[in-house]
Amino acid sequence: MELFHCLYINLLLISSLFVAAVFASDPYSEALLSLKSELIDDFNNLDDWLVPAAAPGKVYACSWSGVTCNKNNTIVVGLNLSMKDLGGVLSGKQFNVFNELADLNLSHNSFSGHLPVDLFNLTNLRSLDISRNNFSGHFPGGVLSGLQNLVVLDAFSNSFSGPLPVEASQLEYLKILNLAGSYFSGPIPSQYGSFQSLEFIHLAGNFLNGEIPAELGKLKTVTHMEIGYNSYQGSIPWQLGNMSEVMYLDIAGANLSGSIPKQLSNLTKLESLFLFRNQLIGMVPEEFSRISGLKSLDLSDNQLSGPIPESFSELKNLRLLSLMYNEMSGTVPESLAQLPSLEILFIWNNYFNGSLPENLGRNSNLRWVDVSTNNFIGKIPPDICSRGVLFKLILFSNNFTASLSPSLSNCSSLVRLRLEDNSFSGEIPLNLPEITYIDLSNNKFTGGIPTDMSQAPNLQYLNLSNNPELGGNIPPQTWSLPLLQNFSASASNITGNLPPFKSCKSISVIELHKNHLSGSVPESISNCKALERIDLANNKLVGSIPEKLATLNALSVIDLSHNNLSGTIPAKFGNASNLLLLNVSFNDISGSIPSGKALKLMGTSAYVGNPWLCGAPLKPCPSSMSILGSKGTGKKLVLVLLLCIGVVIFIAASLVGIFFFRRTSKGQWKMVSFPGLPRFTANDIMKSFNSTDSASASVCKAVLPTGITVSVKKIEWGAKRMSIMSEFITRMGNARHKNLVRLLGFCYNKRLAYLLYDYLPNGNLAEKMKMKRDWTSKYKTLIGIGRGLCFLHHDCYPAIPHGDLKSSNIVFDENMEPHLAEFGYKYLIQFANGSIPATIARRDSGEFNNAIREELCIDIYGFGEIIVEVLTNGRLTNAGSSIQNKPRDVVLREIYMDNEVVVGDHDPTNSLQEEEIKLVLDVALLCTKTNPSDRPSMEDALKLLSGLKPLRK
């Protein structure tokens, strides 16, 4: 045994001597192993960085991943640790041995802490890339000038603060300087105009302020400049027109004022100019026509006035022209239609008038046109889709007339068509195989709904409402469109019967009020499992209300008012837990309104105009109807007998209850139930807790006597607060929406209460964030969250702010439908701790409106942050301020990568997803505006997100 022990000791000694010998001639490997020991490598991406097993003499690290050596494998000249999921804080001490290192790439990791000063001793370094990490603190000052050979300095997307490093301007060979996407503050140093070799400068998305230095105009070698998404003072320096080599200039979102300097027209090599989202005034310089190579010009979201310059006819390479959201006027020059490269034309929300150019679309591959919310007249240019690539045409809120051109009727590439709020006439085309969204409402179309709906197999949204001369019937194929979700044709003189609902799995909204529909509501409506809203009011429908309508779990709004329906209200509606509105007023409905709190909450307006209808909330039913019925004396006697027995039992139970109350009044439990919870006693609930421990926990799970599993939250209160808190809990319990977790009831005494919620075991959004999900699922999730929040803000009176909106408070049901959990709970906690939240204060309080509005704005901000979290698969959390301070195109590029979107792909599906992501991100940017008054209401945010309105309208 001792022999083996001696051998083991000797082997260790030999091994140690061997490693020491290796490291004596190979300090690089030793330094890298020391570096590895500091790193967090959860995915073992540096597993091949091992102690060498070969003979000394060469640098063993040359065989390791990310390490580059010279030809003889004797010197390390490059280290690339990019995208290896590494983290930790770097000491930097290991870099002292890398005297010949030329390239160091630490990008796309999670390194944090201060940037090691030792890095700046690498005097042979040509490229330093530390982008997309979380380095913080001030960028090391006074040492950067030591990297005299540096060509590339990329520190994009970190958390640096303080001033920009002035010493960077002393780097003679520097070509790329990227300090965007951090928290640098203060002005751009005027010394930044003295770079000798700089070609690329990116400072956008920081907290920079002050005036843009005129010295930047001295940068004669720069081809790409991005300095927007900061908050400067003053105007654009005219001296920037001296940057003779610049091809890309972006100063968007930078708080700039004044007019656009005409000297920018001297930038004759410019291809892209982005000055959107500022406060620029005056006219667009005619001199811009001299920039013959210009491809993208975006001056949107400013206060520009005047017409589009006629001279723009010289911009033969122009692909994107965006002047939207300004105060421009006049007509659109006919010469604009002659531009051979024009693909995207955005001029909406201005004061343009006259007709669109007659030849628009004839000479270029026009892909997207949005001229909505102007004063245009005339017709749609006949050749607008002649090249066959137009996929979005947005013309709403103008004064267009005439019928749709044959070119548009056969535009097979069209995905989105919005022509609402005009005076278009003639028949409606539907030979559009790629179309997903059509809104033709508020026009003068005729000829009925197109009969061959199969020509639009991808259609999801169709709105033909308020076309009073449309007429015709509803084609039987309408409900069979495989993707159709929203069908609206209200106030359009539609006649005939409702066709059978043979296949309608995707339809969620049917709106057909104010027509002349006759016949009955088909029983086959039960096939529409996704139906959320049906509005058939103000028609001539007869027959009874289908009982199967009450079995649709998603259905929340039913309006059958002002028809000729008869019979009774199906009893099953009393158990419809998601029902928010059932309006059967002004029909010939009779009998008793089914019992159920949801139906009582509708109010009398939902039932008036039915003389033979009775029961709460209307007048009580006659005793002959409510007690004895009308069939047989024997049955009457049985009912009377049962009633008497029930009265006796009630009296006995009351006496026992009074006796019990007198004995145990301090600890007596009471029960309040909301729609969806069977009638249990407080004792039933208390016995259902798993154990004494679970009953004492703040959150637990309980199985009720019928087997229903509920989630239970405990809250303590004082006797003095019990009344007002129970009132607010009742408001929470009456809030019913498919995207809210139902509060089923609460059990309480004078000391504490237990709130009983639906138990949804399918996890929360925070848990599922990093799971790979398709874009459709993400979009569905965001819409669901938005609908739930919109209901709390706009359909509850007073409004109920959520108060704690975050991904862990969004849970999923068995159909992966999102539900908002814990809405209002924050305010109960506040009250229990002694303060009175504005949300439950008296409505006559002078501060109520302002206080509750502030809480709603906080919710909207949280919604914007959740959008970003979903878009980035959980990569960005609490990112509202950071996305406001980063360039939008940078954020978009990252999100496209997160969602595996190939930008520029001509695949229509990919292009549509690309544009939808832009739309969703813009909603997030609006919701996370720093100034609460700049944020949209939740109702407007949801409309934007749903595509019902374009951005900022």
TrEMBL record:
Residue spans crossing the bilayer: 637-661
UniProt xrefs under SUPFAM superfamilies: L domain-like, Protein kinase-like (PK-like), RNI-like
Gene3D superfamilies assigned: Phosphorylase Kinase, domain 1 (3.30.200.20), Ribonuclease Inhibitor (3.80.10.10), Transferase(Phosphotransferase) domain 1 (1.10.510.10)
Keyword Transmembrane helix recorded: yes
Protein name, per record: Protein kinase domain-containing protein
Family membership noted in the UniProt record: Belongs to the RLP family.
Pfam families xrefs: LRR_1, LRR_8, LRRNT_2, Pkinase
Taxonomic placement: Eukaryota, Viridiplantae, Streptophyta, Embryophyta, Tracheophyta
InterPro entries: Kinase-like_dom_sf (IPR011009), Leu-rich_rpt (IPR001611), Leu-rich_rpt_typical-subtyp (IPR003591), LRR_dom_sf (IPR032675), LRR_N_plant-typ (IPR013210), Plant_RL_S/T_kinase (IPR051716), Prot_kinase_dom (IPR000719), Ser/Thr_kinase_AS (IPR008271)
Cleaved signal peptide residues: 1-24
PANTHER family: LEUCINE RICH REPEAT FAMILY PROTEIN, EXPRESSED
Broad class of the protein's primary localization: membrane
Molecular function GO terms recorded: ATP binding; protein kinase activity
Biological process annotations from GO: post-embryonic development
Topology of this chain in the membrane: Single-pass type I membrane protein
Keywords tagged on the record: ATP-binding, Glycoprotein, Leucine-rich repeat, Membrane, Nucleotide-binding, Receptor, Repeat, Signal, Transmembrane, Transmembrane helix
Tree of life domain: Eukaryota
Domain named Protein kinase: residues: 650-952
Localization, UniProt: Membrane
Secreted listed as a keyword: no
GO cellular component entries: membrane
